[in-house]
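Quick one: structure tokens for this chain, please?
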Amino acid sequence: MAPRRISSSLFRSLSASSASASFLLSRGQTPSRGRGIYRFITATALEEPITPPVQISYTQHFINGKFVDAASGKIFPAYDPRTGEVIAHVAEGDTEDVNRAVAAACKAFDEGPWPKMSAYERSLIMLRFADLVDKHRDELAALESWNSGKPYEQSAKSELPSFARLFRYYAGWTDKIHGLTVPADSNHYVQTLHEPIGVAGQIIPWNFALIMLAWKVGPALACGNTIVLKSAEQTPLTALHAAKLFQEAGLLPGVMNVVSCYGPSAGAALASHMNVDKLAFTGSTETGKIILELAAKSNLKSVTLELGGKSPFIVCEDADVDKAVELAHHALFFNQGQSCCAGSRTYVHERVYDEFIEKAKARALRRVVGDPFKKGVEQGPQIDSDQFEKVLRYIRSGVESNATLECGGQRFGSKGYFIQPTVFSNVQDDMLIAQDEIFGPVQSILKFKNIDEVIRRSNNTRYGLAAGIFTKNVDTANTLSRALRVGTVWVNCFDVFDAAIPFGGYKMSGIGREKGIYSLNNYLQVKAVVTPLKNPAWL
């Protein structure tokens, strides 16, 4: 994806939102049974953006323990999605930069002290890093929100504490990774060794840049690997700042390298590199397929994929509707709807459907949209003009499909990439808004009659990342949680991401698991060592 020019991006954004409004008017459809959208329109004037309390200090690649320019000398812009304006220019990596980073990681693994360091020593470095994250929490949170548009309170109070916790969790695993002694039928002593896999290539997304870094870097370091990490081109700033903190914590040169670049060039180079032993990717299913193909065509490196989702959130007939509405609202609108596991198919039992619709609409209308650095704001802008326009296209598709637009559906404000919280009712399974991953603040509410029906419909998707169940009946919860073909089921809760809870998907939502003990297997090789026993006293 080529760097965007601000003027054309804003022009396309304005055109998309204007087209959306014109489309609704041309159909004569009011998106809220006669009211609701006008509350958004009368509140569209955003104040002058708040200046983030942080300086951007690191914009070069981090390779072999040093910040360096791109081999080509190229740079690309990083944007503020509140305004669409450039906030920094970052070194633009390509194949040569990836080659330099992989060479540094190979040398650190093959010749350096990192893999030979005791597990306890590795854990101390990871713990020092977590302490530095706590110390620099405000800076990291401000960078994360400035570059991605998510609310600062979310970054500072939720994501940064989780980020540090994940590294402390994996630091605790470093000296608990070991093999087994295996009994053999013959006179042989057999042991298994769990060895680091080597150089791990890691490609992280833009929606949770720091959290995804922790999910991948944490277990890789705990197992003794070295790393080449590619950050998302939309959000390169926090990974570079984290690299500096790793250096301060004592991480040795070459152990962790960060390259900022576009996916089709440097991302593809990393996926197909012959000296990368392991690849981990989080992103879209379409890109995941390409990553898997590149890995297979190169050196058949092992691949972990955490991909897209279209998660059902099932509200049963016995639900407390007020609580269900609030939880379903959070499940969808959290992080501007830019979450792979968002509860983007809200299935509501027919007995409570009408009540749920009215209350879900009212909650969406109360959602506070604005500058993510302003206290009390729940929703900031979408990440960029491409995502902004994509979401508006899906909204238009929902209207064209005759779903009922209860509220929202348009741009919020006249600057940046803000979208009104949007709610559709009367959604059918064959509509695009019920099938595709929208990745935006669009809630699609569907009606169901019984448990067997909602199980069948929930599973009738190419995705299988997560699901939510809201019920007072433990038998219903058990039936649904075992029948749904997904990697995570949240019962009467949603988006609970403890460091020890594994996360990953069924079907086209990915391969493998991240977090918890299961993630360690991604970064280890198992070796069997067999030695003859002479006159053993026992077998």
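The CA atoms of residues 78 and 88 lie 5 Å apart.
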